[in-house]
Write a structure and sequence with these properties.
The structure is a single chain. The protein is mainly beta and 187 residues long. The chain has one helix spanning 2-22; strands at residues 23-38, 49-51, 53-67, 70-86, 91-108, 113-129, 139-150, 155-164, 174-186. It has one domain (23-186): Porin, CATH 2.40.160. It is built from one helix and nine strands. The protein has an eight-stranded antiparallel β-barrel. The radius of gyration is 21 Å and the shape is elongated.
């Protein structure tokens, strides 16, 4: 009877150890190079040039290993996006703070590099602007794609492009787009 119990405990411990290797948690942070695109970007009748803003993102990740070469990675990020509008006299900055939830398919290209593709849902938390734009939408849906470089087993660097597929403002054809560069740690 002792042998059966010891065998069961060893099998259970081995199974739990194997399960722990299938799920990794982590944190990441980085820079955003964000802009807005669309045909309805008008402040007034004056001519304004639109420029991208440099902002940030930070949050949590979970990597769920499905097979040796494939994993699913949901993330929970705070991300700021928007654009700057200026002419010779004035400059206006429209900065939007989102909680973003990308769910990425990670396809391992080799031991160190993976291709990351998937949808992203974003919920507007804050809006800092010094100009009267059309009201911002509280939900945005987008598509994300990028690459991850695993520097070590725990440290990684990512580059990603996120394209907004839905309008960022009500009654206007304005969409967010952002290039993200991040670094993080998985444990």
């Amino acid at each position: 009877m002792k042998k059966i119990i010891i065998t069961a405990v060893v099998v259970l411990a081995t199974s739990l150890g194997a399960q722990a290797q299938l799920v990794k948690f982590g944190i990441k942070a980085g820079l955003n190079y964000a802009n807005q695109t669309g045909s309805d970007i008008n402040i007034t009748t004056a001519n304004y040039d639109k420029e991208a803003i440099t902002s940030y993102h930070a949050g949590l990740i979970v990597e769920i290993k499905v097979t040796e070469g494939f994993a699913i990675q949901p993330e929970l990020l705070y991300s700021t996006q928007g654009a700057t509008y200026k002419n010779a006299v004035q400059e206006f900055k429209n900065e939007l703070g989102y909680i973003s939830i990308p769910v990425l398919a990670k396809i391992n290209l080799n031991k160190y590099v993976s291709l990351d593709l998937g949808p992203q849902a974003s919920f507007l938390l804050s809006e800092r602007k010094n100009v009267s734009f059309k009201e911002s939408e509280t939900f945005e849906f987008g598509a994300a794609s990028g690459l991850t470089l695993n520097v070590t087993k725990g440290i990684f660097i990512q580059g990603r492009y996120v394209l907004g597929l839905t309008e960022a403002t009500q009654n206007a054809n304005v969409k967010n787009s952002v290039v993200q560069i991040s670094a993080g740690f998985k444990f």
